Amino acid sequence: MLRRRLAIVAGPGKAADAAAQGLVAAEFRVRRLPDAEAVLSFARAAEVCVLAGAPKSAADLIPRLASVRRPRRPLRVILLDTDDGAESLPPLPDGPPLRITRFDPAREAARRLLARWPLHAGLDPGFGQRLHLLIAGTAPPAKAIALQTLRLAHYGGSGPVLTLASADPEAQRASLLADYPQVGQWCRLRFEPIEAVGLGGEPPVTAAFVCVDPPEDGLRLARSLAERTAEAGAGGAPIYLETGGACARGGIDDWDGRILPFAYLQEACRAEVLLDGRGDELARVIHDHYRDSIAAQGRDPATEAAGRPWEALDPSYRDASRQQADHLWAKLALVDCRAVPEEQVEVFAFTPLEVERLAVIEHQRWAADRWLAGWTYAPVRDNSRRHHPQLVPYEDLSEPMKDLDRYAVRLVPTLLARAGRGVLRLLLVGVPASGCPADRSLRRLTERTLERLALRYPDRSLVLASTLEDAASRLIARLALDRYDAGLFLLCPRPLASTLAAQSDAAARRDLLELVARAERRIPLAGEAELARWLSERAEIAILTGDGVAAEAPQRQVRLDPAEREPQWGFEY
Fold this sequence. Notes:
Layout: E1 6-10, H1 14-25, E2 29-33, E3 48-51, H2 55-66, E4 75-80, E5 98-103, H3 105-116, E6 132-136, H4 142-152, E7 161-166, H5 169-179, E8 188-193, E9 207-210, H6 218-231, E10 239-242, E11 259-262, H7 264-268, H8 271-274, H9 281-296, H10 315-334, E12 337-341, H11 352-372, E13 376-377, E14 387-388, H12 399-410, H13 412-418, E15 421-430, H14 440-456, E16 460-466, H15 471-484, E17 487-492, H16 496-501, H17 506-518, E18 521-524, H18 527-538, E19 541-545, E20 557-560, E21 568-569
Helix pairs in contact: 3-4, 4-11, 9-10, 10-11, 11-12, 14-15, 15-17
């Protein structure tokens, strides 16, 4: 019988408790200790040591841990919640006897949450829609989500709107702007009272996070926000609710289709995140590519601060690669592309127009990262004063500087290929609602249509877009998802609650909710007229069912009429 690995978790707090739970789930034998002093008794046999609490105690303990005689493998030391006390830490060793990393659970959770639920999940940037994120409450990880949003919310246009709601909006405003005075360069900030969030005259909310203390108060607030955002034209926007670790009760029949629970400490403190850097895979690829480029120039990467191996890299350089990696998905969304397994793609390159469009976005992302780090414009670069001459609009850059952003964009397919992924363009197929019965005949016609589309467009990734309000469109969507690995965009011209209430029975409601849960985008639309315009401007093909007519549908249409034996194609396929 194999002896389980020993992990020590020392110090107070919920983060330390969550780390212990995450390591237990990974089959570690965990010693949960109340303070750091007791760690020394177990340091020789332990493989992992997690330290929570004051940085000063960690600074005192680390030299003593380094003196403990151990087997050949280094002791993995993870310091929780130490960002505000970095100056108290000793220099971090490069190798044995200790391997030290610092870990901010709130920041890591924000990265993971906005990777699972990207900012564009609630809008269509290709339709000119503006990002509007609402964060209600100030409990962790609210601030970390706001900062990660400020790093990622670059989709062009007029820039994002970030509404922060709290019990004391003015104090929150003063605190945030004191720490990040240049945030207004690329984002419009709004500070609102949490119990009376004003949304009138603003772009529809595309997503909301609720982070309050105690977490038990969050569900009431989330339900209230669902009503208020629906009244303001965002009836389908997802509302992510921090539960403090409480498990959601009930099944899909009890769901409102909008409120999605999460527990940030459980998200961040899984063993694969704490120990293996889960979520950093693409960032590591970006860094390895950079090291290879240095080597190709005849230089030794290890002799340069930014070229050292990932494990020995300064945190600021790691973060630069992470931020570039995290924003890559926004770039793909902006030009209607997605990453797929590499074997599905033969060759891909962005068009010159796409390169230029994305280069502007890449420069905005880079500049926002610099501003958040306290850099300002100056005609001459001065690292000690954090002055940079390139903190100007893209159009004011020199051509060599623009080429750096263009190069970063052209590099995206190469980086994804090194991570085993390829890039495909989307094939957006609109499915307007109709009164057509969802019977065997429609299923047969749908199967033939989807098969033909897959054969006709092997270099495209199928995405169906629908309100899902009728049984026929849900049948088509389900077949596309299950058999052709299609994506699904939920079109929301009316509140989702209204669509659910209009279903004929519980089975139809459940059918709708199951598909809502699988939708990768929820696109707010201001009524039937804007729905028709979206189908006309964004869908390349429309699948019409029965004898229904779709106003302003794209010219390429295929009709599925159960009275006919074959799909009726309105274009050469």
